[in-house]
Amino acid sequence: MLFYPISFTLLPVINKNLEQQAKALFDYFYESANKTLPFTNLVQVLGGGTPKTSTSEFWNGDIPFFTPKDIGTPYTLHTEKYITNSGLAHCNSRLYPAGTTFVTARGTVGKVSLAGMPMAMNQSCYALTSNIIDPILVYFYTLKTVASLKHKAVGAVFDAIITRDFNTEVVSVLNESASEQFLSIARPMMGGILDNTIESLRLASLRDALLPHLMSGELDVSTLDI
After folding, report:
1. What is the layout of strands, in order, in the sheet containing 112-115?
2. 136-170 pLDDT, tens per residue?
3. Helix (H, G, I), strand (E, B) or coil at 66
4. Is the dihedral of CA 209, 213, 219, 225 positive or negative?
5. What is the pTM (predicted TM-score) of this model?
6. Measuring CA to CA, which residue among 117, 139, 126, 119 is closest to residue 26?
């Protein structure tokens, strides 16, 4: 019988609980806010692009290339495709820093994720950044905004998000004191989620590397006192 560290199975549960607590805390401050602003007064909505798929020198590099297939919960640390520096130079995407909020705009629409490391992004997503509020606040304001867009689309086909959709959204704005209080609690929570996600991926990689050797009998663990 193969045993995994207990944290391997508990980490996703812990992460879900931490994010739920952070969302509930943000809701508390959000509902108490007495000021509203257009969403795009706080947040910039930026786009992406794809290098030519026929040019091999643009692909299989070291830069994660985020697409709607790569949504994490909430952090994305691994992508299906990677591009090279040359590929980045030949597409319409920036190299977005860790902590950038991504929203899927086509395909699987309205999913929200945080970049766990610097990433480029394709044209089926938006990157949301800000020069005036913390990236963690960008993420939680974005969750509110996307939820509003989905609510408005009830009964209609929610098959795409366009820039104009963000321009029409209004959000309640936490004042400076509320923002600081929220971040003082939420920042370590989100940092814990990221650390747990990294550890979970490390353990999964270790499991996948060891399992064939265990199944073949190449590694014998029968004498281990577990």
Report:
1. 44-46, 125-129, 101-104, 112-115, 75-76
2. 999 999 999 999 999 988 767 778 999 999 999 99
3. strand
4. positive
5. 0.87
6. 139
